[in-house]
């Protein structure tokens, strides 16, 4: 069987298992990976690749996610998330947009969108609860902000690697990034406004 056919078959299997049968994504990926290794007649190599890949992901992100979860949990336990949520609501007339900007700013120094999201999601949950708005809307706004800065602000790891490959110097990248970020934040605001179906809820965006 050709590699392209194996790849397409694996893609279809993952979609069917996760979308139709609601299998846990992690279990779907693991089982399909083993199936691909068997089709390629390299079961041992496939198993080694799976273990190596998982180890690499845990090595790079495991500690970051755990630390972020601890920080967010501590803030929640001591009541810090409630205080920060109250401050966001009091200072900003648009708390959803404020969460977007907060995620954007926090992701810059920690240089990780996942860590910023894990730390701030309890605050987003608190804001959503106090303002009687869907948690999905608050979480979406927060995640869009963290992703925007992580992907566009130099020297984030992804941006740095791309800039090195393209031979772009830092100053040029910052200027271009600022223009793109301005457009992206505006686009995020428009998308979040369209997510709010009741007209009475437009005041929250």
Explain how this protein is built.
Helix content is 82%, strand content 0%. By secondary structure, the protein is mainly α. It has one domain (60-204). Helix 5 packs antiparallel against helix 9 (170-195). The chain is globular and about 60 Å long. The model is unreliable at 196-205 (pLDDT under 50).
Give me some keywords for this one.
single chain, 205 residues, mainly alpha, globular, disordered C terminus
Topology:
Elements: H1 3-20, H2 25-39, H3 43-77, H4 80-91, H5 95-110, H6 113-131, H7 135-152, H8 157-166, H9 170-195
Helix pairs in contact: 1-2, 2-3, 3-6, 4-6, 5-6, 5-7, 5-9, 6-7, 7-9
Assign a percent range to the helix content.
Answer: over 70%
Main structural class: mainly alpha
With helices defined by DSSP (H or I, 4 residues minimum), what is the helix count?
A: 9
- The Cα radius of gyration reads 21 Å
Total number of β-strand segments?
Answer: 0
Approximately how much beta-strand content do the residues carry? Answer: under 5%
Using the alpha-carbon principal axes, give the shape: globular
Can you tell me the number of structural domains? 1
Element order: H for helix, E for strand: HHHHHHHHH
* Average residue pLDDT: 76
Q: Uncertain spans, ≥5 residues at pLDDT below 50?
A: 196-205
Largest sheet data: none
The span between the termini is: 52 Å
């Amino acid at each position: 069987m050709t590699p392209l056919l194996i790849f397409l078959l694996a893609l279809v299997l993952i979609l069917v298992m996760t979308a139709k049968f609601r299998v846990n994504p992690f279990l779907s990926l693991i089982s399909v990976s083993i199936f691909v290794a068997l089709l390629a007649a390299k079961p041992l190599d496939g198993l080694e690749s799976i273990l190596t890949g998982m180890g690499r992901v845990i090595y790079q992100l495991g500690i970051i996610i755990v630390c972020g979860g601890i920080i967010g949990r501590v803030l929640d336990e001591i009541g810090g998330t409630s205080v920060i949520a109250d401050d966001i609501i009091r200072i900003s007339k648009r708390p959803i947009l404020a969460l977007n900007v907060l995620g954007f700013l926090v992701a810059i120094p920690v240089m990780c969108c996942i860590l910023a999201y894990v730390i701030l999601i309890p605050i987003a949950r608190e804001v959503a609860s106090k303002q009687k708005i869907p948690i999905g809307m608050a979480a979406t706004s927060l995640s869009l902000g963290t992703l925007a800065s992580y992907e566009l602000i130099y020297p984030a790891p992804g941006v740095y690697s791309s800039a090195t490959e393209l031979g772009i110097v830092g100053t040029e990248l910052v200027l271009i990034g600022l223009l793109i970020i301005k457009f992206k934040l505006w686009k995020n605001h428009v998308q979040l406004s369209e997510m709010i179906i009741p007209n009475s809820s437009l005041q929250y965006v």
